[in-house]
């Protein structure tokens, strides 16, 4: 794995193929836990751990897994490693587990884990697969944190509520003051759809502008023949 | 013939590999389970003690509270469909207080699990919600961690109250003609907790002697 492919993986995971904005995979946990920044980012980080270890395990074992039964074996590996992560969190990071505990088993059902194992780790070496898992996971973390921030801000008027469970001594920021009545839809499930839709629309605008700029700079060099490719 | 032979061989080989993976990863899980069990049990116990400290001050008793428990079967008075536990606090061998696991079945979103501590004098020393599904930002103020009024959380109003202060007929939320406050817009959650607390205090007073007399670790 060289620097070039590392940057490629990072760019893919954090922006170009972002799980929440582009692939739209694993929406169930995204929408369920993004009620606050702390909840959302914590589940995201737990997903990073699971994605890194399952990508590493599958990439290391990929030559021993027969093609016909690869999906059951992948699911077995992901479920076993999630259980291990769940038990390890419970035993050694108990306070964090109290916050995340109910979400960690949900990671098994997050199709983004299986998707990356199948699409990347099954065909690549262990090191770049681990990097891919971490980067895809981090792409999910930042999206979840932003989504959680929007919903928490709208719903409760605070940011980082519950941070004292992870870093004792820190406390939530009350953005709109204690009299903010709370815009309940931010916290309720429909708020998750509205907030995610806004973020996807914003990301599409940014992507469309970038594509336009790219097309504009390439126009003198590459005439009509290149047009369909850049549109796709 | 040879094709069939190959197909059969491939199937057996594939099945064998699947079994091998299952065995290896099951072993990995059970090893982790064994390795982490002591730490997990210790923190579960610590969590339970922390909760009990919130409803009953440690100065009120001197026995090993968690070991001095009575198991209950189905107990409709406490809302327990599948049974629960009562912990007995004693001071110098004398009965001091009962810590009851209680369920309020009629929350806005299903069951609300509570822990209620009742002294031998019939005074409620504290109530805490241990599990609930009430609406975030609306009914979840019954959990003091979610209550926006941190200095005087809603659930704190039961501490120190007995039927001598508030009779059973007044042990309701104000909307129902009782004495206890509720937050407008979310009466149902408060009503469920208030009524469950009244039933628990009533049960503890009625069954006090039988509960303290039962052998430790026994069933009632």
TrEMBL record, chain A:
Its main location: membrane. It comes from the Bacteria. It is a multi-pass membrane protein. Pfam families: Rnf-Nqr. The chain crosses the membrane at residues 20-38, 71-89, 96-115, 127-147, 159-177, 183-206. The keyword Flavoprotein does not apply. It is found in: Cell inner membrane; Endomembrane system. Its EC number is 7.-.-.-. Coiled coil: none annotated. Keywords: Cell inner membrane, Cell membrane, Electron transport, Membrane, Translocase, Transmembrane, Transmembrane helix, Transport. The complex is composed of six subunits: RnfA, RnfB, RnfC, RnfD, RnfE and RnfG. Belongs to the NqrDE/RnfAE family. Part of a membrane-bound complex that couples electron transfer with translocation of ions across the membrane. This is Ion-translocating oxidoreductase complex subunit E. The gene is rnfE.
């Amino acid at each position: 794995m060289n620097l070039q492919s590392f940057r490629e993986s990072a760019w893919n995971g954090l922006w170009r193929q972002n799980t929440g904005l582009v692939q739209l995979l694993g929406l169930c946990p995204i929408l369920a836990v993004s009620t606050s920044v702390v909840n959302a980012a914590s589940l995201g980080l737990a997903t990073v751990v699971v994605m890194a270890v399952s990508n590493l395990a599958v990439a290391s074992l990929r030559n021993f897994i027969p093609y016909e039964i690869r999906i059951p074996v992948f699911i077995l590996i992901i479920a076993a490693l999630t259980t291990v992560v769940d038990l390890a969190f419970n035993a050694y990071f108990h306070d964090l587990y109290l916050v995340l505990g109910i979400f960690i088993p949900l990671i098994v059902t997050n199709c983004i884990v299986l998707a990356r194992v199948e699409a990347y780790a099954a065909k690549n070496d262990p090191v770049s697969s681990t990097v891919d898992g971490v980067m895809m996971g981090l792409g999910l973390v930042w999206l979840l944190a932003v989504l959680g921030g929007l919903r928490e801000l709208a719903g409760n008027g605070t940011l980082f509520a519950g941070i004292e469970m992870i870093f004792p001594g820190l406390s939530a920021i009350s953005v709109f003051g204690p009299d903010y009545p709370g815009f309940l839809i931010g916290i309720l499930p429909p708020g998750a759809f509205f907030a995610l839709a806004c973020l996807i629309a914003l990301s599409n605008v940014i992507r469309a502008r970038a594509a336009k700029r790219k097309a504009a700079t390439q126009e003198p060099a590459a005439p009509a023949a290149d047009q369909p490719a850049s549109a796709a | 013939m040879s094709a069939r032979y190959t197909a059969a061989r491939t199937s057996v080989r594939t099945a064998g590999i699947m079994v091998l993976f299952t065995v290896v990863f099951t072993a990995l899980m059970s090893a982790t389970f064994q390795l982490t069990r002591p730490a997990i049990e210790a923190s579960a116990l610590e969590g339970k003690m922390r909760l009990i400290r919130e409803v009953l001050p440690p100065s009120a008793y001197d026995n090993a509270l968690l070991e001095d428990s009575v198991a209950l079967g189905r107990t409709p008075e406490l809302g327990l469909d599948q049974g629960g536990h009562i912990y007995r606090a004693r001071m110098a061998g004398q009965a001091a207080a009962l810590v009851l696991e209680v369920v309020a079945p009629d929350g806005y979103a299903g069951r609300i699990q509570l822990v209620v501590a009742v002294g031998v004098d019939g005074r409620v020393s504290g109530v805490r919600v241990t599990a609930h599904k009430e609406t975030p930002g609306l009914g979840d103020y019954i959990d003091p961690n979610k209550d926006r009024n941190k200095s005087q959380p809603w659930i704190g109003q039961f501490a120190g109250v007995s039927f001598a202060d508030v009779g059973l007929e007044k042990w309701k939320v104000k909307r129902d003609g009782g004495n206890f406050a509720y937050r407008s817009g979310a009466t149902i959650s408060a009503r469920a907790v208030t009524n469950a607390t009244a039933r628990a205090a009533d049960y503890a007073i009625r069954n006090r002697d039988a509960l303290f007399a039962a052998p430790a670790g026994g069933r009632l």
